[in-house]
């Protein structure tokens, strides 16, 4: 099978495979579209089971970044990168610098930011070898960490989905299951708790679960079972494909709205959610707050007010998608994809 016949290849403009023997770097950079501007997207570091898993992930993520930027109204294209390796044991400054040289070689067509397995400190190291990086900790341009604004956008989008499904934006007493307590998931829990929601949580790391119990009086489930919880809203905030052939029939929530990328294993799972009467908030619309943040971090004068104002457009975009889906009897993910593709023509 060639890259062009790969199931997740969606007419990507460019795919780079990078290997550096001296540092052990194995990475892939995928640019899906530069129609609206340079491709900006995070660098994920993960110990993938196979190289094909890594390729599938970067292809799917870069495509969704194109759609995310388009529907967020940003002059950006869609790109993503993955480094194959465990971020806790395989990451070294030399490896990150080698990756930075690969980014620089693309001449600005791809701009890298942090993602799962990387952070602002890693972006600082990568910046030793390339100027095409954002998300750096800088007093003039924000903290470098986009996760608070990602969580804020997801919170607003979740509220919009609740209003559409239940007729009220209030989350007081709403039962919500959060799968994944990383930087975004934990911050989302804080916002939901403050709004009066009752929380069920799950994460592979016991310490994160303990913190959520203490801070938010959260009920505890497991990553494998939390989707089965009888709640109002299921919020996937871990890795993708949480809605699949196995989990979808077991869902009890009326709304799926979370921060994870590529929550649907296949587009058809959006159709099945609609058939079951479950409202799905398309993930790349909901979680655009981080991309909005790092876009503004590129400007000379970073404005938190402008960032927040831009993120607060997310509920309006979602409301349009929900209304169109009802009118045209379509799944919400199909509507969002169609809108984004129209903007990329």
Q: If you had to describe this structure to a student in words, what would you say it looks like?
A:
The structure is a single chain. With 345 residues, the protein is an alpha/beta fold. It folds into two domains: 3-64 and 77-127, Leucine Dehydrogenase, chain A, domain 1 (Rossmann fold, 3-Layer(aba) Sandwich); 146-344, Rossmann fold. 41% of the residues lie in helices and 17% in strands. The strands form two sheets. A six-stranded parallel sheet has the order 8-7-6-9-10-11, with helices on both faces. Helix 9 runs antiparallel to helix 10. The two termini are 28 Å apart. The model has no long low-confidence stretch (mean pLDDT 95). NAD(+) binds at residues 180-185. Keywords: NAD, Nucleotide-binding, Oxidoreductase. This is Amino acid dehydrogenase.
TL;DR?
NAD(+) binds at residues 180-185. The protein is an alpha/beta fold and 345 residues long.
